[in-house]
Amino acid sequence: MPVESHLTARPALPTIEPTRGVTPLGLAPWRDGTLYVPASYDPAVPAPLFVAFHGAGGSSAEWAAYRVRAEQRKMILLAPDSRSGTRDLLLRQVGPDVVFLN
Predict the structure, then answer these.
(1) Of 13, 40, 62, 63, which is least surrounded by CB within 10 A?
(2) How many distinct structural domains can be found in the chain?
(3) For residues 52 and 79, is the Cβ–Cβ distance under 8 A?
(4) pLDDT digits (tens, 9 = 90+) for 1-30
């Protein structure tokens, strides 16, 4: 895949204290997504970030069951709603999901 298919966002120290639990991303009214921060989150301790891409027009609601695992593993779960159908693997093109997440 072309270079444009890579996420450009990079890890950094938190600048605000995140809300624990489920928070809508608030990025787009028609297709949004959720951020799940475990109750055990400690900003002084690095936490893994799991980005749940699901494609094919899927919703972040499909990842709700993973919140239990995220809590157990002290992992932050980012589940953006898919922007459109699957294309990255099938058509070998960069789809709008990566562009939206960046």
Answers:
(1) 13
(2) 1
(3) yes
(4) 444 566 677 777 778 888 999 998 887 777
